[in-house]
């Protein structure tokens, strides 16, 4: 299966991706995670990206497209199926993605659009915590780690992302409405868009999605 996850910050893209990559054995490609890794390694891309991410703005297309093109054309596991999380986020990124996917002959099956409402988004992102080591997701109220600030899975440090404060969340939401919403229409025209209710519990979202895959006879390929 070849999927894109689209939706506002906090809609649950990373949470659904973690469930799907296990059940469908997909390569999970998150541009947010890739950029944070570049920042950690203090690469030129990381240094350039840091100031945009901290403000809640999009990193310029050229940096993100270069990262994605390298990953999709060099990682052989991509042929077994992939899950793009947080990419594309602009029309230019969507057009370039089509070009790269034609080149590697791995066209998209679906673009999953996770809709979510602002109060839910603010509650989720304000309480989100992430493991610095393995990336496992937690939430102060919905899904706390057993021991405060310690990852249940690997014992790594659980921290709050610098861009998960209310002012930056509002900027990210504005940027999403202006730059990323148009990408939804781009895929609607291609007939690849499926809408999911991101406000629902993540297991319910997964069940709704599996229903779509079953109806389209997509699961017998795995
Ligand atoms: P990125 O890391 O992609 O962040 P985002 O899109 O803002 O999305 P989030 O990771 O905040 O939310 P999510 O939908 O994955 O929610 P999650 O599952 O974690 O991007 C960060 C920045 O990098 C951008 O602002 C930009 O600067 C840059 N960037 C990245 N890609 C780029 C691109 N293509 N172009 C340019 N710049 C780019 O869930 C959130 C919380 O809610 C968690 O605590 C979770 O436990 C909880 N939760 C999730 N789902 C549920 C549920 N169903 N029920 C209850 N709780 C839930």
Observed structural traits:
5-stranded parallel sheet, globular, 15% strand, Rossmann fold, alpha/beta, single chain, 3-stranded antiparallel sheet, binds BIS(adenosine)-5'-pentaphosphate, 222 residues
Describe the structure.
This protein is 50% helix and 15% strand. With 222 residues, it is α/β, with parallel strands linked by helices. The protein has a single domain (2-117, 165-215), classed as Rossmann fold (3-Layer(aba) Sandwich), CATH 3.40.50. The strands form 2 sheets. It has a 5-stranded parallel β-sheet with strand order 2-3-1-4-8, with helices on both faces. The radius of gyration is 17 Å and the shape is globular. It starts with a strand and ends in a 7-residue tail after the last helix. It binds BIS(adenosine)-5'-pentaphosphate.
**Sheet/helix structural class:** alpha/beta
Order of helices and strands: EHEHHHEHEHEEEHEH
Q: What general outline do the C-alpha atoms trace? A: globular
Average pLDDT value? 94
Distance between the termini: 8 Å
- For the record, the count of structural domains works out to 1
User: Largest beta sheet: what is the strand line-up?
Assistant: 2-3-1-4-8
User: Mind telling me which CATH architecture this is?
Assistant: 3-Layer(aba) Sandwich
CATH superfamily: P-loop containing nucleotide triphosphate hydrolases
Largest sheet: 5 strands, parallel
CATH topology (level 3) name: Rossmann fold
CATH top-level class: Alpha Beta
The radius of gyration computed from the alpha-carbon positions, rounded to a whole number of angstroms, is: 17 Å
Q: Got a strand count?
A: 8
Query: Assembly state here?
Result: single chain
């Amino acid at each position: 299966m070849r999927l894109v996850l689209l939706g506002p910050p906090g809609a649950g893209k990373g949470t659904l991706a973690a469930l799907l990559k296990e059940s469908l054995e997909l390569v999970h490609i998150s541009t947010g995670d890739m950029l944070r890794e570049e920042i950690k390694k203090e690469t030129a891309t990381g240094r350039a990206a840091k100031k945009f991410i901290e403000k809640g703005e999009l990193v310029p297309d050229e940096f993100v497209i270069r990262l994605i093109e390298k990953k999709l054309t060099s990682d052989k596991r991509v042929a077994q199926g992939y899950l793009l999380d947080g990419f594309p986020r602009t029309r230019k990124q969507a057009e370039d993605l089509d070009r790269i996917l034609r080149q590697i002959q791995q066209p998209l099956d679906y673009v999953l659009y996770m809709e979510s409402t602002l109060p839910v988004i603010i509650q989720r992102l304000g309480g989100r915590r992430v493991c610095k080591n393995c990336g496992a997701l937690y939430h102060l109220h919905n899904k706390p780690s057993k021991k405060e600030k310690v990852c249940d899975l690997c014992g790594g440090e659980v921290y709050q992302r610098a861009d998960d404060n209310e002012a930056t969340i509002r900027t990210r939401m504005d940027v999403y409405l202006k730059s990323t919403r148009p990408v939804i229409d781009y895929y609607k025209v291609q007939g690849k868009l499926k809408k999911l209710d991101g406000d629902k519990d993540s297991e319910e979202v997964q069940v709704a999605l599996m229903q779509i895959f079953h109806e389209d006879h997509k699961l017998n390929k795995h």
